[in-house]
Write a structure and sequence with these properties.
single chain, alpha/beta, 9 helices
């Protein structure tokens, strides 16, 4: 896990968060959008509680995590001490972790196959808890990456909605690292508009301003706040 770097204190993380917050607000204004039309997700994967707490103390409440087990260890105590946290799962979800995910997360952004849709539907029916759901779209059709191919998104959304009675709120994408991101953001925005999936999770530390310009409703920023991760 990330720990506070030698010589770095909580105020350094809080300072980086506030700087990112200003940059996001500036990008929103530059795009001519309403002040609260974009949600900043602070991606705290691999960051221990002592690194997350300065951001919570600064007033931020929306966080993204990649791993169910890490989140189970990290967030119950933080949520008790900082009410109002909204937690997004932004990493791949195994179908056998659907029960834990529905219990833990307010939004699940990586729905990308029928077996997972089936398990999520079972848990939503069983618990009555309804996290917001995003379908992950593999805009670059990269074989090593999760997500539905762009040409298959319409059929998959229809399956989720009609067969499993899932309310699909939006789409999420991670463009290929070696591609210009804007065409991928534009593709996702076009799909979302056509398919009545109004939430758009796209854009990270290096490209969030472009994502906001092209319609992102959620941007996922981790490194610029918490620093580089190991590996």
């Amino acid at each position: 896990m990330i720990s506070l770097a030698r010589g770095e204190d909580a105020s350094a993380i809080a300072h980086r968060y506030k700087s990112v917050r200003r940059e996001v607000d500036r990008a929103i204004a530059d795009a001519g959008r309403a002040a609260h039309s974009v949600t900043l997700i602070a991606v705290s994967k691999l960051a221990p509680p002592e690194s997350v707490e300065p951001v919570l103390a600064a007033g931020h409440r929306v966080f993204g995590e990649n791993y169910v087990q890490e989140s189970k260890r990290k967030w119950p105590d933080l949520r008790e001490r900082y009410p109002g946290v909204e937690l997004h799962l932004i990493g791949p979800l195994q179908s056998n972790k659907a029960r834990d995910a529905v219990q833990l997360f307010d939004a699940i952004q990586t729905l990308d196959r029928e077996s997972l849709a089936r398990e999520l539907a079972k848990e939503i029916e069983r618990t009555g808890k309804r996290p917001r759901l995003f379908v992950q779209v593999n805009t670059g059709e990269e074989p090593q990456k999760g997500g539905i191919a762009p040409q298959d998104v319409e059929v998959f959304l229809e399956l989720c909605r009609r067969t499993y009675s899932l309310n699909i709120d939006g789409l999420m994408a991670i463009p290929p690292a070696d591609h210009p991101p804007s065409p991928h953001f534009a593709l996702l925005a076009s799909k979302a508009k056509t398919l009545n999936a109004p939430l758009l999770s796209m854009g990270m530390s290096a490209d969030f301003a472009q994502a906001i310009m092209l319609g992102a409703t959620h941007v996922r920023i981790g490194t610029a706040i918490f620093g580089p991760r190991p590996g």
